[in-house]
Amino acid sequence: MASSTMDTSHVGFRLNTPPSGFNPRRDLAPGLFEFLQPLHKRFTPGQHELVAKRQRALKASLAGSKPNHLPPSNATTSEWSITVPDWYVDQHNQMTGPADEAELVVKDAELGRARSHARPRRFDCERVEPSNILKALRGDLSYYDQKRQKQVSINPSPTVI
Predict the structure, then answer these.
(1) Which tens digits make up the pLDDT trace of 118-132?
(2) Which long-range contacts (CB under 8 A, 24 or more apart) does 25-33 make?
(3) Which residues, at least 6 apart from 72, have a Cβ–Cβ distance to it below 8 Å?
């Protein structure tokens, strides 16, 4: 098949979407929705515009017209900053872990509770539906610990996921 007739609709630049049933007011940490909402409103239209431009550039490139580098943008040449919430400031001992096993999520979140200096937690949701994270945020995540022969769940804590 000639490159000019290739179907490129499946190639790159898809935007991530939330999992089914996700409710940001319910499923995000307290204050996070309010922090993210103005950023989302400000930057999402530009994000969609950039994705569309990249899709056009990819289509043109696959048809033989290679792109040129863009000139420096205002984002890379001007001074800018954002204010983060107080709960996010403590970043000196972040942990990152997989989100596909309930046991790992519960144990990692509990580690953050046990060590007050290790509160921020990040979980890898790249290859999995983040349902364990949503359950953890609601306080509904648990697993059966074979060793201790009991159900273990996440306790209320200052841990930020």
Answers:
(1) 456 666 666 666 778
(2) 26/138, 27/134, 27/137, 27/138, 28/137, 29/87, 29/137, 29/160, 29/161, 31/85, 31/87, 32/85
(3) none
pTM over 0.85: no
Mean pLDDT within 61-76: 88
CB of 110 closer than 8 Å to CB of 154? yes
Tell me the per-residue pLDDT of 17-54, one tens digit each, with 9 for 90 and over.
788 899 988 988 888 999 999 999 999 999 999 889 88
Cβ distance 120 to 92 under 8 Å? no
Per-residue pLDDT tens over the stretch 69-97: 888 998 889 998 888 877 666 655 555 66
Whether 113 and 85 have beta carbons less than 8 Å apart is answered as no
Cα atoms found within 13 Å of the Cα of residue 29, Cβ hemisphere only: 18
Query: How many Cβ atoms from other residues are within 10 Å of residue 125's Cβ?
Result: 16
Q: In terms of Cα–Cα distance, which of 150, 157, 115, 114 is closest to 136?
A: 157
